[in-house]
């Protein structure tokens, strides 16, 4: 219905409005869940290629479970609360729905963009950790995994168009949960290393290189090719 309807036709009722809102949120959520899985797959591919394709997992045990659940789940699924304009604005300007007929929120192009983002970030996180790690391999895990969590949280913030207070809670809860769990994950993290300045600047540097270019691209895109709703949300 959304793809075929003209502006104001077949989308004016309550069901149509709810479907259009659900479409954009579902598109953002679905593609970000895909990104969350592909970025760690890219890191594993880089890691395996450097070590002659040895069948050794980069992250094991609770790290993989924690990454898929408490460390990233709440911020990612908080994207269902995102909205480009307020509901009353959408009702007042039905021409905004015209963009939905073009299918730009979920297409092969957007899928390819998220694939490229995942490969880029996964490569930066893994190569950066391997270049900057200290004398022990456990430091590679500590640097790359911490940078991965921070990157995911920043990418959620980059994707959000309108902040909801629950989104802020989800971001801080996930970050706090990760930091608190470091005290109990001595099997994967060397506490004497992760509390040092070298660890902090290396994680910060890798995360910055991973995310800053995407923030710059988003800023330039909004400046020179703003979406149709930007004037209403400003």
Automatic annotation (TrEMBL):
<protein>
    <recommendedName>
        <fullName>P-type ATPase C-terminal domain-containing protein</fullName>
    </recommendedName>
</protein>
<keyword id="KW-0472">Membrane</keyword>
<feature type="transmembrane region" description="Helical">
    <location>
        <begin position="197"/>
        <end position="217"/>
    </location>
</feature>
<keyword id="KW-0812">Transmembrane</keyword>
<dbReference type="InterPro" id="IPR023298">
    <property type="entry name" value="ATPase_P-typ_TM_dom_sf"/>
</dbReference>
<keyword id="KW-0479">Metal-binding</keyword>
<dbReference type="InterPro" id="IPR032630">
    <property type="entry name" value="P_typ_ATPase_c"/>
</dbReference>
<feature type="transmembrane region" description="Helical">
    <location>
        <begin position="33"/>
        <end position="53"/>
    </location>
</feature>
<keyword id="KW-0813">Transport</keyword>
<dbReference type="GO" id="GO:0005768">
    <property type="term" value="C:endosome"/>
</dbReference>
<feature type="transmembrane region" description="Helical">
    <location>
        <begin position="137"/>
        <end position="158"/>
    </location>
</feature>
<dbReference type="GO" id="GO:0006890">
    <property type="term" value="P:retrograde vesicle-mediated transport, Golgi to endoplasmic reticulum"/>
</dbReference>
<dbReference type="GO" id="GO:0045332">
    <property type="term" value="P:phospholipid translocation"/>
</dbReference>
<dbReference type="GO" id="GO:0046872">
    <property type="term" value="F:metal ion binding"/>
</dbReference>
<feature type="transmembrane region" description="Helical">
    <location>
        <begin position="111"/>
        <end position="131"/>
    </location>
</feature>
<dbReference type="GO" id="GO:0140326">
    <property type="term" value="F:ATPase-coupled intramembrane lipid transporter activity"/>
</dbReference>
<keyword id="KW-1133">Transmembrane helix</keyword>
<feature type="transmembrane region" description="Helical">
    <location>
        <begin position="165"/>
        <end position="185"/>
    </location>
</feature>
<dbReference type="GO" id="GO:0005802">
    <property type="term" value="C:trans-Golgi network"/>
</dbReference>
<keyword id="KW-0460">Magnesium</keyword>
<dbReference type="Pfam" id="PF16212">
    <property type="entry name" value="PhoLip_ATPase_C"/>
</dbReference>
<feature type="transmembrane region" description="Helical">
    <location>
        <begin position="59"/>
        <end position="81"/>
    </location>
</feature>
<dbReference type="GO" id="GO:0005886">
    <property type="term" value="C:plasma membrane"/>
</dbReference>
<dbReference type="GO" id="GO:0006897">
    <property type="term" value="P:endocytosis"/>
</dbReference>
<feature type="domain" description="P-type ATPase C-terminal">
    <location>
        <begin position="21"/>
        <end position="226"/>
    </location>
</feature>
């Amino acid at each position: 219905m959304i793809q075929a309807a003209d502006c104001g036709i077949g989308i004016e009722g309550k069901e149509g409005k709810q479907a259009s809102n659900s479409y954009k949120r579902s598109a953002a959520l679905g593609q970000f869940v895909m990104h969350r899985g592909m970025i760690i797959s890219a890191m594993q591919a880089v890691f395996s290629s450097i070590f002659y394709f040895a069948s050794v997992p980069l992250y094991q045990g609770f790290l993989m479970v924690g990454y898929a659940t408490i460390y990233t789940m709440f911020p990612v699924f908080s994207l269902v609360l995102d909205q480009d304009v307020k509901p009353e604005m959408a009702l007042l300007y039905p021409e905004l729905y015209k963009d939905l007929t073009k299918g730009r929120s979920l297409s092969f192009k957007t899928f390819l963009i998220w694939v490229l983002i995942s490969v880029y970030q996964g490569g930066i996180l893994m190569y950066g950790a391997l270049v900057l790690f200290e004398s022990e391999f456990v430091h590679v895990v500590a640097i790359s995994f911490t940078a991965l969590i921070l990157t995911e949280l920043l990418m959620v913030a980059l994707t959000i168009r309108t902040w909801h207070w629950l989104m802020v809670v989800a971001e801080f809860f996930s970050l706090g949960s990760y930091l608190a769990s470091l005290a109990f994950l001595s099997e994967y993290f060397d506490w004497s290393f992760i509390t040092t300045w070298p660890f902090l600047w290396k994680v910060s540097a890798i995360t910055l290189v991973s995310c800053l270019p995407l923030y710059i691209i988003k800023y330039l895109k909004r400046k020179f090719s703003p979406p149709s709703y930007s004037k209403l949300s400003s």
